[in-house]
Amino acid sequence: MSKVFRKSERGDNMFYLAFFIYLAFMFIYGFSVKLKTKDLEEINVSNRSLGLWSSAFSIAATWIWAPALFVSSQKAYQNGVLGFYWFFIPNVLSLVLFAVISINSLKKLKKEHTISELMGNVYSSKRVKRLYDFELSFLLVCSTGVQLLAGGKVISQLIGMDFSLVTVLLALVAFSYSYAKGIKASVRTDAVQMILMIVAVIAAVAFLIPRGQVNFGGIKSLTTSVFSEQNWIFFLAFGLTTTIGLLAGPIGDQTFWQRAFSMKKKNVIKAFVIGAIIFAVIPIGMAFVGFAAAAEGFIPIDVSLVGVEYIFSVAPVAISVLFLLCIISGLSSTLDSNMCAAGAIFSKFSKKSETVKSARFGMIVIGVIGVLIANIPNIDIFWLFLFYGVLRTSVAIPTMITFLFSKKPKEKSIFMGILSAFIIGIPVYTYGALFSSNVYKVVGTLLVLLLPLVFIISGGFYVKEQKVR
Questions:
Q1: For the chain, give me the number of helices (H) and strands (E)?
Q2: Could you tell me if residue 372 is inside a domain?
Q3: Which terminus of the chain, N or C, has less C-beta within 10 A?
Q4: Which of 2-6, 170-174, 464-468: highest mean pLDDT?
Q5: Out of 14-23, 90-99, 366-375, which region has the weakest mean confidence (pLDDT)?
Q6: How many structural domains are present in the chain?
């Protein structure tokens, strides 16, 4: 029997109360962080002193973002195990891959706060730094927009609050403690948010298990065999782009480099591996929700929010409230990470901008633009997710080769390779996404990934240091 989500009146007051208590708690908890100096070194990288477990939970929470909460259950609901598989596996592996790359990067790290600054110094090139600054900033804008869009849609649909107001409130709370306390406050609040997410998802799954209905083929009753023709068709339509985008994800994202640069070096690999394990709990739990919704023939209002709608339709108020806080936590943890990353990028844009004031100005800019993007009519979460996944891919190969190989590529090869990905690969992919052409999406993704590699191989490697350009 099909069921359709409807906002329940039984828990409206509870939802409102939980929402505002959560916002107040995070505001107060974020501000409770004590800083020693309040200089740029502490605001951006916490004096390189972050601990293992707080960092691991923060990494997991930051990697949750909107797609991990919503796309996981959506793909499980629509495409069954195959949809979940091509989303989950690269998600987890990406953090492990980043652990290896980041620990190698620390061998070259001196006093840099951003990956763009480090790459610029490695190649003695201002133009390489500028390309990275552009990619990182554009990513933060898109990511912030996605988090606010997803949070606004869920909360406004659930409790009837104005969508635009919700996006502003979410942005303001994440901004407030990030603005005042920097990366240390972001990591501390992330840890609390991650624990809350785990509790909520486990509670939801525990409630659903006794119902005994799970459809691993999804609502479309697709095969679960990885050797089937359906799987390879799905791989070309979704899996390839998603896998490349996710594996490249942390590499092209300042939020993860900022955590690597802010930790004690001995904890970096452990923190990212533990973070990957902690993270895995959430997409697995959300996929189970999607499988259960498919088994019951549940019909969502918005298929991208099927997991959320299903829980709020069948679960008791207590679990629904807990799940609401899970959603807000997942989105907020990425929001405050984005704010801090923006602060680092803006404050390290040039020698003149190396001030706490510049860092805080960057947080304001990203927050305002993110709210504006979230409020664009009919903008789609899934499309934005795939787009900035491809954007991150543009710098993946150059960064990996720089830190995993003993010899460096030539500066010109790095610059031209990334630039070609921007002006050729990304437009091709965007065309495919806009006109629903899988061929153009696949070709665009491969161009973004491989064009930098072609330039690096054809340009060769150099030994001598180059002058700053």
A1: 19, 4
A2: yes
A3: N
A4: 170-174
A5: 14-23
A6: 1
Amino acid at 335: L
Task: Summarize the confidence of residues 396-409 as an average pLDDT.
Answer: 92
Measure Cα distances from 249 to 73, 244, 385, 387, 435 in Å.
20, 8, 11, 12, 24
The kind and range of the H/E element at 303 are none
Q: pLDDT-based confidence at 249, cuts 50/70/90?
A: confident
Classify residue 311: in a domain, yes or no: yes
Residue 270 class from Cβ within 10 Å (0-12 exposed, 13-18 middle, 19+ buried)? middle
More confident residue, 430 or 224: 430
Whether 57 is in a domain gets the answer yes
Structural domain range at position 318: 52-381
User: Are 311 and 204 in contact, with CB atoms under 8 Å apart?
Assistant: yes
Could you tell me which of 405, 381, 102 has the C-alpha nearest to residue 269? 102
3-class SS of residue 3: strand
Token pair for 119: 């790459």
Q: Convert the pLDDT of each residue in 114-149 to its tens digit.
A: 999 999 999 999 999 999 999 999 999 988 988 898
CATH number of 102's domain: 1.20.1730.10
Residue 456 lies in a domain: no
